[in-house]
Design goal:
This protein has about 90 residues and is an all-beta fold. The protein has no helices and 5 strands.
Length: about 90
């Protein structure tokens, strides 16, 4: 399982992420991980190399004028966003 050290949640295809790399042109944008597109191999698995070697294709939730709708970003630039359905109900209902 691949994890992001910031929150120990798995970065994998299909999860919602936020770009946290301050130097990135995509900083603050959210989207869905579409695919693992680059990596340096490591012990026994396709993506077993260090997290900084993995590149993920992210499809952004909404386009901004002139900005791409998708990008390839390194794992350390991404943070998993908790799904609304995964949060505990605090409404008191």
């Amino acid at each position: 399982m691949l994890t992001n050290d910031m929150n120990d949640q798995s970065i994998r295809e299909g999860v919602k992420v936020r770009v946290i790399g301050v130097g990135s042109d995509y900083y603050g944008r959210t989207g869905k991980v579409d695919a693992l597109v680059s990596y340096v191999g490591g012990a026994g698995s396709r993506a077993g190399g260090p997290p900084e070697s993995r590149g993920w294709r992210v499809i952004f939730d909404w386009p901004l004028g002139g900005l791409a709708g998708r990008a390839i970003l390194r794992e350390h630039e991404l943070e998993v966003v908790a799904n609304v359905l995964d949060r505990p109900d605090t409404s008191g209902a």
